[in-house]
């Protein structure tokens, strides 16, 4: 079956512009996660959604970052007023439910802020 | 704060060898531990998931063990092949309730299998 998909695969933007990254989870998966992978920093957890519950935003790196999930399925991660330090690969994952289930990752969106 | 450490950071071995990748974590209160591989420019592929109540999981030539009390996991790769070349990542899921607790990852072991 279809895996987690993300779009765009690559995004180059100018400093100060806003960007939107999209994630389509595996059908039937109620939990969705966003991570960031920066060069030399490793993988960093950002935010998760469980069904239609409001997410805990405490893992987001700054208030320029926001995320939403519509209808318990597709999610968008928005970065406002992008900075060069936002350059990274943004990975989305989904799982059947929260906590004990295996997470499946998408291919990621490579964001470059110039 | 949970910290995950992977040793070695890089490993290069001839094809056919058996090898062990190590992962350690500081907080033993975990739901589970997951091993992934990441190929250059790609996302993560899940290899094995071990629940906190389990001691090991096997898939083909891969065997992962978990010793929760000592905060350690190993990934054993038998009869290595050039196609096994990738970065291997270990990640744990904390038991903490109500927090923003996704997976906590190690920095990975970059593995090269020489033909």
Task: Summarize the SSE layout with pairings.
The complex is a heterodimer of chains A (114) and B (115).
Chain A: E1 5-7, E2 10-13, E3 19-24, E4 31-38, E5 42-50, E6 65-69, E7 75-79, E8 88-95, E9 104-105, E10 109-113
Parallel strand pairs in A: 2-10
Antiparallel strand pairs in A: 1-3, 3-7, 4-5, 4-8, 6-7, 8-9, 8-10
Chain B: E1 4-7, E2 10-14, E3 19-25, E4 30-38, E5 44-51, E6 56-59, E7 62-67, E8 72-77, E9 86-94, E10 103-105, E11 109-114
Parallel strand pairs in B: 2-11
Antiparallel strand pairs in B: 1-3, 3-8, 4-5, 4-9, 6-7, 7-8, 9-10, 9-11
Characterize the structure shown:
- The complex is a heterodimer of chains A (114) and B (115).
- With 114 residues, chain A is mainly beta.
- Chain A has strands spanning 5-7, 10-13, 19-24, 31-38, 42-50, 65-69, 75-79, 88-95, 104-105, 109-113.
- In chain A, the strands form 2 sheets. In chain A, strands 2, 4, 5, 8, 9 and 10 form a 6-stranded mixed β-sheet that branches.
- In chain A, a hairpin with a 5-residue loop joins strand 6 and strand 7.
- The radius of gyration of chain A is 13 Å and the shape is globular.
- In chain A, 35% of the residues are buried.
- The model of chain A has no long low-confidence stretch (mean pLDDT 91).
- Chain B has no helices and 11 strands.
- Chain B is globular, with a radius of gyration of 14 Å.
- In chain B, 36% of the residues are buried.
- The model of chain B has no long low-confidence stretch (mean pLDDT 92).
- The chains are: A mainly beta (114), B mainly beta (115).
- The A-B interface holds A 4, 33, 35, 42-43, 45-48, 56-59, 91, 93, 99-100, 102-108 and B 31-32, 34, 36, 42-46, 49, 51, 89, 91, 93, 98-108.
């Amino acid at each position: 079956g279809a895996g987690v998909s993300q779009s765009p695969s690559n995004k180059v933007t100018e400093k100060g512009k806003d960007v939107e990254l999209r994630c389509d989870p595996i059908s039937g998966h109620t939990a969705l996660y966003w991570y960031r992978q920066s060069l030399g920093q490793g993988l960093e957890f950002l935010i998760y959604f469980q069904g239609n519950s409001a997410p805990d935003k405490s893992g987001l790196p700054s208030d320029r970052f926001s995320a939403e999930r519509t209808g318990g399925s597709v999610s968008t991660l928005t970065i406002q007023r992008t900075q060069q330090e936002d350059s990274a690969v943004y990975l989305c994952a989904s799982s059947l439910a929260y906590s004990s289930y295996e997470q499946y990752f998408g291919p990621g969106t490579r964001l470059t802020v110039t | 704060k949970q910290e995950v450490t992977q040793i070695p950071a890089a490993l290069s071995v001839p094809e056919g060898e058996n090898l062990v990748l190590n992962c350690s974590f500081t907080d033993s209160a975990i739901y589970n531990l997951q091993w992934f591989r990441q190929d250059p420019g790609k996302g993560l592929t899940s290899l094995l998931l071990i629940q906190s109540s389990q001691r090991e999981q096997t898939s083909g030539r891969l065997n992962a063990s978990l010793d929760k009390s000592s905060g350690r996991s190993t990934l054993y790769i038998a009869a290595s092949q050039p196609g096994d070349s990738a970065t291997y990542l270990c990640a744990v899921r904390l038991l903490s309730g109500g927090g923003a607790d996704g997976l906590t990852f190690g920095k990975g072991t970059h593995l090269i299998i020489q033909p």
